[in-house]
Fold:
Amino acid sequence: GFTAYKSPETQVVKSEESATTITGAALFQKNCAACHGTDLKGHTPAFPSLKEVKTRMTKEQVADLLKTGRNNMPSFSYLSDAERQALVGFLYGEKTKSLIQTQLTTEEQGRNLFVANCARCHKAKPDDPQPAGQQMRGMMSPPVLAGVTRYMNIPRFEAVLNMGPCYMPSFDFLNHQEKSAIYTWLKTLEKSGPQYNGMMRMR
Structure:
């Protein structure tokens, strides 16, 4: 069975997929897999393997790191204590779930999903620092994503996330609502984006 965590003080959000629960595995896929890999093997040296994290860190240390962030790793303080505990349990090889999901606006969710899944390689705005993924791989600079909503509608944007063209991985583990949330947040940055950012226009 699952070990369930609950934070009574945290509000609940009802998503398209489920009522209130989310597993530790799903939390990992949505927040950590883009950097640490769906198999937890990481992308060294910038993003270490998490397969044996329990031999290096206590649960309390992992939970604190999720809350504060460090170096290339962003803070996941927007997750509730219950969600972080479920995520830590998953990293320890346990079947866990959180009985709540933190309530966020669509824009907030989109920003957090961008940080967790896209910011490793893409700048959101032209004046953002160079992402760690570019430094690590020495690859051609992926496009700045502010302004991409001028050239792509949501179906095309989702198709790109699903396909993972060129060196970009597939993000088909994100559901429709989550991809739409990223698009919605990027749309708020349109005025910050270049007139042409390398993304192909819709025909």
User: Anything to note?
Assistant: Residues 35 and 47 are 6 Å apart (CA to CA). Residues 8-18, 197-203 have pLDDT under 50 and may be disordered. The first helix runs from residue 24 to 31.
